[in-house]
Design brief:
The protein has 434 residues and is α+β, with helices and mostly antiparallel strands. It contains nine helices and 17 strands.
């Protein structure tokens, strides 16, 4: 069905006078259940669909979209896109992807695994997750709830270069957040599991247990005075740092000159310990894709080798603005893998004395200068072991220096998202507390 709609849109664009056109047709549906204190708090269903069409009249571009798959609605969307194109200024970088970059064959990446989970079963899984968290300790006194969700989606992309391709994918998720209390002070923490296939999800009782244990460890949190010390970022927080790097070396930031890593190809941007590889074809992984949002083939490649930047993340438009070629990243980076060699206890011992960050708050990142300042919580470490939890602190530095100051990487890779990185030890940052 979606392929037929895509062909209809492309044919309508050609007939209406577009010199080139592209379209993406998508639909998705899902179910989510939230349980709090064993009672059902929310049950939600969603079903979305849409068509986006981009047309080119020479180097003039217009875009329109509709959620209506009827033939007259598709023709109206094409007409609107053409009307917009005729009134926009010419842009030399506008246009479809280069024909020789388009995928003509691609692998099955095993991304589609529906979860046959009805509402009653989802409610029971939510209750089991929450009960496991509350059972950890009597000091876990309250719950923000446990959620169980499943989702499926499908899309097709087509253009006037005779490319037509698409695939189905799925994404399932279970999370839990609980509250602990001691001496009148409360803390909260959470945990979650996410996967393409339901059998790859962590057992829900384990999700609840981890959420409860993480909350328990935060009870009795203290503040710190202002100091400088090493900072160890837990794997999910290290993924955020990697995200800041991706933004800085992505096409939009580069051609707008709004990046702290301008003109950095071939330069040392990380510690020599750091290697980053893009792996778009990992089976069942969150960031896997056989081609990007423009139909350009995705390929495995080295992004950072021994700390030296090897390549940017570019779609066709940003590549032309920079005088380069698309890297198959229209729509963003794919799976980024950062190998590490030490487990978390070894990283704590290596740090000796410093801050172990398990949560960051707010944005606080200047993408132009690299200045970094975010609220944080975690644990103070003495003698290579966790001494006590800390809260209401701010960590500050500059990403250019922080990246070069990475002194160790963990093998505890968090593979729930598209950035597969373990815990990351930075030699020195400023901590501002009370």
């Amino acid at each position: 069905m979606l392929e037929h709609i895509a062909r209809t849109v492309i044919a309508a664009a050609r007939k209406a006078g577009a010199t080139a056109a592209e379209t993406e047709v998508s639909q998705a549906f899902g179910q989510s259940v939230t349980v709090r204190k064993a009672a059902v708090e929310t049950i939600a269903y969603h079903r979305d669909k849409g068509v986006g069409v981009t047309v080119y009249v020479g180097k003039r571009r217009g875009h329109a979209s509709t959620a209506d798959f009827a033939a007259d609605a598709l023709e109206a969307a094409v007409a609107k896109a053409l009307a917009i194109a005729r009134y926009t200024a010419e842009d030399p970088a506008a246009g479809l992807a280069d024909p020789d970059r388009l995928a003509r064959a691609w692998p099955d990446l095993d991304l589609y695994h529906p979860w046959d989970l009805d509402v009653d079963a989802a409610i029971e899984l939510g209750r089991e997750t929450e009960a496991a968290a509350l059972a950890v300790d009597p000091r876990i006194t309250n719950s923000e709830g446990a959620s169980v969700s499943r989702g499926e989606s499908e899309f097709v992309y087509a253009n006037t270069l005779d490319f037509l391709g698409g695939y189905r994918s799925s994404r399932h998720h279970v999370d839990c957040s609980v509250i602990g209390e001691t001496d009148g002070a409360m803390q909260r923490d959470y945990w979650y599991t996410a996967a393409r296939a339901p059998e790859d999800l962590m057992p829900v009782a384990e999700v609840g247990r981890i959420a409860g244990e993480r909350t328990l460890r935060r009870l009795g949190a203290r503040q710190l005075g202002t100091l400088e010390c090493p900072v160890l970022f837990e794997a999910p927080e290290a993924a955020d740092l990697l995200g800041a790097f991706v933004h800085a070396v992505s096409g939009g930031s580069l051609y707008r000159k709004s990046s702290f890593l301008l003109d950095s190809i071939g330069t040392q941007v990380f510690s020599p310990l750091v290697n980053v590889r893009e792996e778009p074809h990992l089976p069942r992984a969150r960031g896997s894709a056989p081609f990007d949002n423009e139909g350009v083939s995705t390929t495995a490649r080295q992004i950072v080798a021994a700390g030296v930047l090897q390549g940017y993340f570019l779609g066709s438009y940003s590549a032309r603005k920079l005088g380069l070629a698309s890297t198959g990243n229209a729509g963003g980076a794919h799976n980024l893998v950062v190998p590490g060699s030490e487990d978390l206890p070894a990283l704590l011992r290596r740090m000796g004395r410093g801050l172990f960050v398990t949560e960051q708050l707010g944005q606080g990142v200047n993408p132009v200068t690299g200045d970094y300042s975010r609220g944080a919580a975690g644990y103070w470490v003495e003698g290579g072991e966790i001494a006590f939890p800390v809260e209401e602190i701010t960590i500050a530095g500059n990403l250019k220096q922080m990246f070069r100051d990475i002194v160790a990487l963990g093998n505890d890779l968090d593979t729930r998202g598209s950035r597969h990185v373990g815990s990351m030890l930075v030699a020195r940052m400023t901590i501002a507390g009370s």
